[in-house]
Design goal:
The complex is a heterodimer of chains A (248) and B (434). Chain A is an alpha/beta fold and 248 residues long. Chain A is 33% helix and 11% strand. Chain A has 2 domains: 5-153, Rossmann fold (3-Layer(aba) Sandwich), CATH 3.40.50.700; 165-241, no CATH class. Chain A contains 10 helices and 5 strands. Chain A has a 5-stranded parallel β-sheet, with helices on both faces. In chain A, α9 crosses α10. Chain B is 45% helix and 18% strand. In chain B, strands 8-7-6-11 form a 4-stranded mixed β-sheet. Classes of the chains: A alpha/beta (248), B alpha+beta (434).
């Protein structure tokens, strides 16, 4: 049986999810033995840019017409399209509210010619094409990526948590930063999978993985506001990585 | 007669960029290092944000330099608030920066640059014929990541470093394991050097080059220090960090869509080669021996030497990281909380060395400890003018019109700069896709 073919692509972002794949030092040679990576511009210069792909992994947000065209081309080639990273799943840190004065910002950062740039507000992949699976995280977790690949090779859907970071935090028996120290910790609203990385270091969760399925934002906002943080600051904090996923 | 060489999308670099060179009647009439990464406008996204969120947001400018962005951000905030951190925090930050440099250089040298020298499209293809070399390279890269995980809490976008110190200081056992890993890494690096010294020369461009690098304090390093050293025609000039606009004075130039930085009207190069040129005297005899083995003589007139300079730093960083770990172990590492401070209105400018060169974060805070304005200047933006200068020079000196050969040379020169195009997009004007 021939090896499944795969491509790894980046739209606008920090390349962190592609870097996490390259950081799978212990698994990398096994991975390339199991899947035939045909198109991975960041890692190789002899890419087949037109072949059909069994699996395409795409990181980054859609932030330009160029990104949109690239994503549509990948979608047309791929049997299974997997969004990797918070930008691809939720729009990510560069996503802004619809009311953001984007044109004025473009001019401020890039000068008078900024207005002519091919620049669009950040969109998640699923807002542009059909996405089959989503692996969130800023960046993705190595273990989640490797087991998702194993699942896909076996014809299974990747198994990813839906519950909040607090669940993992309690499993690790970390002290609660929110109730014990009164810090603005986004753990209760944020989807798990990081093994409560930040709270375990006594750093409040910043919500970099995007919201959990059953997150209660109204309750969290009320709780933080009661602790003396202004509602605007709470809203901004919760909306840092996934504004579209956070209810007002 | 006019020929256009267009590299649509550079492979084996971080981000989305290309190169266009137009040759008319044997002379180069136009050179462009094109950037078409989307505009994320992160400087505007942090405006109004409280200080504790800023380093987390700005580290997302770039994954490969995420430690540099996060810690430079923290340094700028500490300058603005007048925060003085403990000696232990200083040592740990130094180590964290070295971890990123080890990882980034191992990635660039072996996975992005090396395949060109040996005629392969990628390190995966290379692994078929050089399995041991690729395994060594993977281990060195992993070691850099392990340092970042132990100190920073994560290999990409560190979480543990905050204004005032660290969330949790690594435990003694973790540092003892790190020590073992560094000793193994030093042996691996020696083996890797045996391969690097056998590489064929890539002699494509020779010209006088101006270099700029942080004048690091406390030895050869990437984080501590406030002055920049500029070396031009054998003359050294020191510039205080607060006066950074004096050498990042960007202006639009007619032949290019990139805003360019210059010093006294000349482009300059930042990165490993610039650091060694300005400050190799801070390195010990062992590092100079590595330099001699690799055939690197300073000052260099060849931008491809940046690859050799990265190899020298990779080797030196392993030894220097080991020294820092030993110091921490002998003084006894203690789980201290971050130092207390009061946010206040003020400005702070921080200059550091990301793996690919000078990185500047400069902030103005309001009296609530929220960002009023932020300015971020990245190494790849600083290098843009120099890249174009060296591309122009390589075409002039090539002695060939053959497109395939010229394309290969142009790609290798851009790659030698180890560009990080996600970073550069903040200040390099993007050239939009037609």
């Amino acid at each position: 049986m021939s090896k499944p073919t795969a491509g790894i692509f980046g739209l606008t972002g920090c390349a962190g999810d592609q870097l996490v794949i390259l950081n799978c030092e212990d698994q990398l040679l096994d991975l390339v033995a199991l899947i035939d990576i045909r198109d991975f511009l960041m890692a190789g210069s002899a890419n087949d840019t037109g072949c059909d792909l069994d699996i395409a992994f795409v990181e980054g947000a859609v932030m330009s017409k160029r990104d949109e065209q690239a994503l549509r081309r990948v979608r047309a080639r791929a049997r299974t399209l997997v969004a990797i990273g918070t930008c691809a799943v939720w729009g990510g840190v560069a996503a802004t509210d619809e009311s953001a004065p984007r044109d004025a910002w473009l001019e401020e950062v890039y000068g008078p010619t900024g207005a002519d740039y091919d620049s669009l507000p950040a969109r998640a992949l699923h807002e542009v094409v059909q996405v089959d699976y989503q692996i969130t995280g800023c960046p993705i977790e190595k273990d989640e990526f490797v087991s998702a690949v194993a699942n896909l090779l076996n014809g299974d859907a990747p198994l990813l948590p839906q519950y909040a970071v607090c669940v993992e935090c309690k499993f690790r028996e970390c002290g609660c930063l929110l109730t014990e120290r009164g810090e603005v910790c986004c753990g209760p609203m944020t989807v798990a999978g990081c093994n409560a990385r930040c709270p375990a270091l006594r750093i409040p969760c910043v919500g970099c993985r995007g919201p959990a399925a059953d997150a209660n934002f109204a309750s969290a906002t009320a709780m933080f506001t009661e602790g003396g943080v202004s509602p605007q600051d709470v809203a901004r904090k919760l909306r840092t990585f996934a504004p579209q996923g956070v209810q007002q | 007669m006019s020929t256009t060489i267009r590299i649509e999308h550079l492979a084996r670099v971080e981000g989305h960029g290309g190169v266009t060179v137009v040759v008319e009647d044997g002379a180069v009439s136009d050179v462009r290092f094109d950037v078409f990464e989307g505009a994320r406008l992160v400087e505007t996204l942090v405006r109004g944000r409280r200080y504790e969120d800023v380093s987390q947001i700005l580290s997302r400018i770039c994954a490969i330099c995420s430690v540099a962005h996060a810690l430079t951000s923290i340094k700028a905030t500490e300058r603005a608030f007048g925060v003085e951190v403990s000696p232990q925090t200083k040592a740990l930050r130094d180590l964290l920066f070295r971890g990123e440099n080890i990882e980034s250089h191992a990635l660039h040298l072996f996975f992005l640059a090396l395949p060109d020298y040996l005629g392969y499209p990628s390190a995966v293809a290379l692994a078929k014929d050089y399995p041991d070399a690729v395994k060594i390279a993977l281990r060195l890269k992993q070691l850099g990541n392990t340092i970042q995980e132990v100190i920073g809490g994560r290999a990409v976008h560190p979480v543990n470093a905050i204004v005032g110190g660290f969330g949790r200081v690594p435990a003694e056992e973790q540092l003892i394991s790190l020590r073992e890993a560094l000793l193994a890494g030093i042996a691996d690096c020696r083996a890797a050097m045996d391969l690097l010294v056998t590489l064929p020369a890539a002699d494509y461009c020779h010209t006088d080059t101006v270099f700029a690098a942080l004048d690091s304090t406390g030895g050869y390093g990437y984080f501590h220090g406030d002055e920049v050293t500029i070396v031009a025609n054998g003359r050294r000039t020191q510039i205080p960090g607060d006066a950074y606009l004096g050498f990042t004075n960007e202006k639009a130039v007619p032949h290019s869509h990139a805003k360019h930085s210059s010093y006294n009207g000349r482009p300059y190069m930042v990165g490993a080669l610039a650091r060694l040129t300005a400050h190799h005297d801070k390195l010990d005899a062992r590092a100079h021996e590595v330099m001699a083995r690799l055939g690197l003589t300073l000052p260099s007139r060849d931008p491809m030497d940046n690859n050799k300079a990265q190899a020298v730093e990779l080797s030196a960083d392993l030894h220097l990281a080991l020294e820092t770990v030993d110091q921490l172990l002998s003084s006894g590492v203690h789980d201290e909380p971050p130092v207390a401070f009061q946010p206040r209105a003020g400005t702070g400018t921080a200059i550091t060395e990301a793996p690919r060169g000078i990185l500047i974060h400069s902030y103005r805070y309001d009296d609530e400890g929220k960002i009023a304005s932020a300015d971020v200047i990245t190494p790849t933006a600083l290098n843009a003018a120099s890249v174009e200068d060296h591309l122009r020079c390589s075409v002039r000196q090539a002695g060939t019109n053959e497109t395939a050969e010229l394309t290969k040379r142009l790609e290798m020169i851009v790659r030698a700069y180890d560009p990080c195009i996600s970073c550069s997009v903040h200040l390099v004007r993007r050239r939009d896709a037609e």
